[in-house]
What does this fold into?
Amino acid sequence: MFKKWANVFMILALVFAVCSPTSYAAAKSVKVTVTLVSAELVENNSVGNEWAIGASVNGKELEEGSSVTLNMKPSGSLKLEALAEEQDKIPDYGSKSTTVKLSSFSKSTTKTVAVVVTENRGRYSGNTATWEFKFKITKK
It folds into this structure.
């Protein structure tokens, strides 16, 4: 009789261990793929012609056309960062970051980050150039 009850308790303990909220929450994660679809100079009012650009998601660098896949909690957030630098003797620089909550969309979304670079010297001082970085975010 004791063995029968011991087996029942062992089975119940195993069921509770597997189905407990903590083990369920720990196992629940989502794969998120972020692609830098494009980085495009959309406006240039005499700021410059030679550029260096960069982008990242949660600190991981992205090149135009490349992707990064992250394992995240469903309640997590992505930090998208973009920067553009006009290349001359005294470079002009602009950057912007934004945060996207994973709970704000169901399967995929597109986020555009606009970076403004302001000419800092010379006869065109104060003029601006605008880059648009388009990110595609997909949950799996």
Summary: Residues 103 and 111 are 15 Å apart (CA to CA).
